[in-house]
Design goal:
kinase (chains A, B), Rossmann fold, phosphoenolpyruvate-glycerone phosphotransferase activity (chains A, B), Dihydroxyacetone_Kinase (chains A, B), 8 helices, homodimer, alpha/beta, six-stranded mixed β-sheet, globular, Dihydroxyacetone kinase subunit DhaK (chains A, B)
Amino acid sequence: MRKLINAPADVVSDALRGLAAAHPSLRVDPGAGTVVRADAPRRGKVALVSGGGSGHEPLHAGFVGYGMLDGACPGEVFTSPVPDQVIAATMAVSGGAGVLYVVKNYTGDVLNFRMAAELAEDEDIEAVSVVVDDDVAVEDSTFTAGRRGTGATLFVEKIAGALAEEGAPLDAVAAVAREVNERSRSFGVALSPVTVPAAGAPTFQLGDDEMELGIGIHGEPGRERVKIATAAEIVDAALTAIDADMPLAGSELLVLVNGMGGTPLIEQYVAYAAAAEWLDGHGATVARPLVGPFVTSLEMAGCMVSVCRLTPELTRLWDAPVETPALRWGR
Amino acid sequence: MRKLINAPADVVSDALRGLAAAHPSLRVDPGAGTVVRADAPRRGKVALVSGGGSGHEPLHAGFVGYGMLDGACPGEVFTSPVPDQVIAATMAVSGGAGVLYVVKNYTGDVLNFRMAAELAEDEDIEAVSVVVDDDVAVEDSTFTAGRRGTGATLFVEKIAGALAEEGAPLDAVAAVAREVNERSRSFGVALSPVTVPAAGAPTFQLGDDEMELGIGIHGEPGRERVKIATAAEIVDAALTAIDADMPLAGSELLVLVNGMGGTPLIEQYVAYAAAAEWLDGHGATVARPLVGPFVTSLEMAGCMVSVCRLTPELTRLWDAPVETPALRWGR
């Protein structure tokens, strides 16, 4: 394997040691498998906890900090965190105003966060889950009943995190998280397969001239396998699929062109140019653009396009100060 | 090619269109091949201009903004910018206090920036070049007389940019840029080759179980080709080479563990953990860590370790506010 690791079994714990060493703003507990804000718990503030399989960095631990998440629970690579991790993070961040779980819609994640919420209830902590299911590519998938949760998770965590930072109550924070999810859609394209370290072989095979349209963030199959196309054609396929599901004309959009982990930034900007031009040609306005590898799938080449139909209030919350390892502005 | 592009000849211009669309804080002139701060020129401020071949994003255009560069000149992929680009950027950012060119030590870059400085003189603009040559891997290389300029370019641009933002004169800004370069060293390792779009084939071949120690950022040969090792062994090779050239014990360090473009962030944190432990075990202190893909080589897998021996003044300037697409804090 062409991987910068020590041993497949140690990837997550080694990366957590690196995260802890690099970011004094985080408190990392490798034993518990949790990453929380160093200033947690914040009294009287709704706390946000997310998590999921590792391999999608900076999601979620890179989004822990002021104005976004209070805690994250990284599972093994492409493997849901266990309820014990979630409850440990919950206990570490709970400030008495309740906890919002931001859960990507994968069967294991949904189940384990649900079990954690029950454990939290035993501790007199109110925990509410919001499930993110933004990926329009497939209705059900390898790991999912219903649509997968992908790029919009970042939108939900940022916007709900901003509202929580302002002191809003749990029901309002949960409501805005649901609203963002409902107004968001994503579609991804893989130009290469991906190898889970513990497996040692690619999760799927792609011919040298093939790509997979509608890929998930774990290498799950998408809609179809086709010949590698141009960036403009790839972005057209993604935005056409999104637009068919949620018409974009007339909307003010938050747009993420997201590198999948193995695609260099110069290519992400090539794709963003195509996305901006497509949207302009279809009557939509990009109010807030974001380009970069934020929701990745190990070393997969390719990109995902995610959009959120903004409202003035969602725009205000998106613009609010944030200070995390991977997203930072305006404070 | 598994690349997210439209046509090999259009990669740089397409990416510049994307950069312009994504970042209103930048003024991109695709015809001139320049990227400058939207608020340029700043009267009375020393302006910083850098540039070099494309394919190393976010270097340099992603570092244009408050507290860092005033302008960047992206050449074609792995190709020096021409003097016309450099002088166009110079004219666009000159605020009457002189211009500092931050030049990576590649023969074409050094020559073209020198020619631009002569053109600037004709326009009554004082332009001074500082050449960055931090890479300890090889003494001369394919594109270089002397050492290559790699990861420390980021340090030079950030620290000199901070001093310029404070209103320091050109000689002081140039002096601190030279000081940072002299106190910095880098060493890179490639786990995969890299394909220049216009060439369509990898710049070199690596066996499935091989890596190249001491690689440059264009896939130039390094010191030796060996079997792929663990992250700890790779980091040990890099830091041992650096330490042999510039002893690190007793130093307060700025440390960059830099992803080369195709290595996911989780692996960069695995490498950073190893670097932090190596330095701790060798009597050096990491005062300022940075982890991420900042000085890349297209889709190359691997990492580079860069260090700078800080002084209190260099630390102060590193910590000063910066607001660019790729580096942002504290304002």
